[in-house]
Structure formats: C-alpha cells, structure tokens
Design goal:
Structural class: alpha+beta
Radius of gyration: 14 Å
Order of helices and strands: HHEEHEEEE
Number of domains: 1
Strand order of the largest sheet: 1-2-4-5-6-3
CATH superfamily: Hotdog Thioesterase
CATH topology: Thiol Ester Dehydrase, Chain A
Strand content: 35-45%
Length: about 140
C-alpha cells in the first residue's frame, strides 16, 4: 500500500496546473495536506489584485491532495469558497486542508488559505466522491 506522500508525489508529477501555479507541498498526512505558492504578476485581474480563481485553485489542489492521499481516486462533488482579504503580487499563500468526514463513498474537507502574515484570505469547503479506483 503506498503512503499518502507517495500518492501525492504521483499526483503532482501529472498535475501540470499545480506545477504552473508553483505549488510546493509542505506536509501530507492521511486526510490532510498543506501546500503553498507565491503570487506572480500574470495572476492579477483587471482590478490589480489576484484573480479569485488563483486562490480557488490553490485550495482545490489542497483539497485534492487531502481527499486522494489514501490511494482512493476521489473527485469533487461540490465546492464553495469565501474570500476574506485581497491577495496581491508577491504574497505567499498557504492552503491547509483538514478532513471533517471520511466516509466510504464521500468525504468533507475544510481548507483555510492564509497569506505570509497568517491573515485568512479565503475559506474553502469541498465534498468529494470516492470512486473506489486507485492511483498506484
């Protein structure tokens, strides 16, 4: 049986979008992930702040790594995000995904996204479906 870290390493090798975002995996445990990235100029919207899709994508990757790391392919059923603070070029964001429920066919995860000052910039909730198929 592969370890949670081995599953996430395998996922990251194939996850070109997370690679493009510049995501660095900090910590992986069963049902848990912590990742970070730095905001680049091409991630800015027309208002001069980071496009909301960037923070959403960071949280979505943390969600994917947390809900898949038991080697059971899991896909998103429902997600939601609340933005609480603007994000700017040069900010370093950290997303921490915590498992709330690990069911046979579904899972529920809460992901907090903080900046380099430990300010909460967004809160994400994800519900996944477990397919029963394996990554490795």
């Amino acid at each position: 049986m592969p370890t949670p870290q081995q599953v996430v390493d395998h996922m990251m090798q194939r996850d070109l979008f997370s690679q493009w975002l510049g995501i660095e995996v900090l910590k992986i445990e069963e049902g848990y992930s912590k990742i970070k990235m730095t905001i680049r100029p091409e991630m800015i919207n027309g208002f001069g702040t980071t496009h909301g899709g960037i923070a959403f994508s960071l949280a979505d990757s943390a969600f994917a790594f947390a809900c898949n790391n038991r080697n059971n392919i899991s896909v998103a059923l429902d997600t939601a995000i609340n933005f609480t603070k603007a994000v700017n070029v040069g900010d370093t964001l950290t997303a921490e995904a915590k498992e709330i429920h690990n069911g046979r066919s579904t899972g529920l995860y809460l992901i907090s996204i903080t900046n380099q000052n430990n300010d909460l910039v967004a809160h994400f909730k994800g519900n996944c479906f477990r397919t029963g198929k394996t990554h490795l």
